[in-house]
Amino acid sequence: MKRTHRVLQIVAMVATIGSGRGVFAQSSTPEVALAEALYRQARQLMADGKYAEACPKFAESHRLDPATGTLLNLAACHEAEQKLATAWLEYAEASMMARRDQREDRVRFAQEHQAAIEPKLSRLNVIVPPAADLPELEIQVDGAPIRPAARGVPTPVDPGIHVIQARARDRRPWSKRVEIGPGPSNQTITIPVLEPAPEVAKPAAPSTISAAPSRAETAGRDTLSRPLSAPVYVAGTVTLLTATGAGVTGVLYLGKNNGDHLDDAKRWGTINAVFWGATALGAGITTYLYLTRPEKREAAAVTSHPMIAPWMSASGGGVVVQGTL
């Protein structure tokens, strides 16, 4: 009952002192017209005790067309809602506006109510110890920044839940919810030393030095080959020529081997025997050089060109093919 009586007194006094919206309401723009309509609705809602509906309308009317009477009504509405810190600040602002308008009655009204509210205020004090005072520390109370000069200063706050947040670069953010009850109270919040943020794992830079392949990997990629050397080619070619000579002299020997040309047949037979001996010797040398040629490691992806070498023996002749066709 005592609180209800106090609210009715506020409404009655504001109805007398703040019935007009002030000198700023003299122009006739759409914003001013809307501000006047909001003001009238809010006055009626406040008279009916509907403060939660009335206060936002007073605030919007004052935003559209700032006026001392509107601000006094808004402060009284917030006082009736028990948002004493907000009302205290609005009364202070209204006092300055009324002094500018030379309305001493409104100045007295605002100052009296501000003085009556002040002992009832609840205050919140945010302290930052030296160890926690980082160069880039940011602190907010309900989203409003608290600058370094305001830290450690008890600040009036309305009853309810308030959120204190602190953050800095390369640090974990910190927050805390504080409940402020009605009536005068003082709460102090100390900002702790913010913990370092976990480092973001960086991908390892690719190595510019590749590991040497193992023997198993090398064996899978490389193959051993035994390419034909120049001596094999030379010996094979000489053997092929002597075999050709043996073939030619053999034909001549057979053509002369009759009763009339026995001397010629004997001569060609001797030459033929020499050629066959040289052919046999060359075939032996060629075979030896071929079988004893050195090994060479080559990449498996490399395909060798076909290589052909002649060979000859006493029982026949032919060619050797090396490589891939």
Keyphrases for this structure?
Immunoglobulin-like; 325 residues; 4-stranded antiparallel sheet; 3-stranded mixed sheet; alpha+beta; rod-shaped; Serine Threonine Protein Phosphatase 5, Tetratricopeptide repeat; single chain
Q: Using the coordinates shown, work out and report the CATH topology of the largest domain.
A: Serine Threonine Protein Phosphatase 5, Tetratricopeptide repeat
Number of strands: 11
Q: What's the architecture of the largest domain, going by CATH?
A: Alpha Horseshoe
Main pleated-sheet profile: 4 strands, antiparallel
Tell me the strand order in the biggest sheet: 3-2-5-6
Structural class: alpha+beta
Strand fraction band? Answer: 15-25%
Number of domains: 3
Terminus-to-terminus distance: 114 Å
Query: Level of helix content?
Result: 40-55%
Mean pLDDT value? 80
Parts with pLDDT < 50 across at least 5 consecutive residues: none
Radius of gyration: 57 Å
SSE sequence, one letter per element = HHHHHHEEEEEEEHEHHEEE
Instruction: Indicate the overall shape.
Output: rod-shaped
Detailed description of the structure:
Helix 3 (51-64) runs antiparallel to helix 4. The chain is 48% helix and 18% strand. By secondary structure, it is an alpha+beta fold. The protein has 3 domains: 2-119, Serine Threonine Protein Phosphatase 5, Tetratricopeptide repeat (Alpha Horseshoe), CATH 1.25.40; 122-190, Immunoglobulin-like (Sandwich), CATH 2.60.40; 220-322. It is built from 9 helices and 11 strands. The protein has helices spanning 2-17, 30-47, 51-64, 68-80, 84-100, 104-117, 215-221, 230-256, 262-291; strands at 122-127, 138-141, 144-145, 155-157, 160-167, 174-180, 185-190, 222-225, 296-299, 307-313, 316-322.
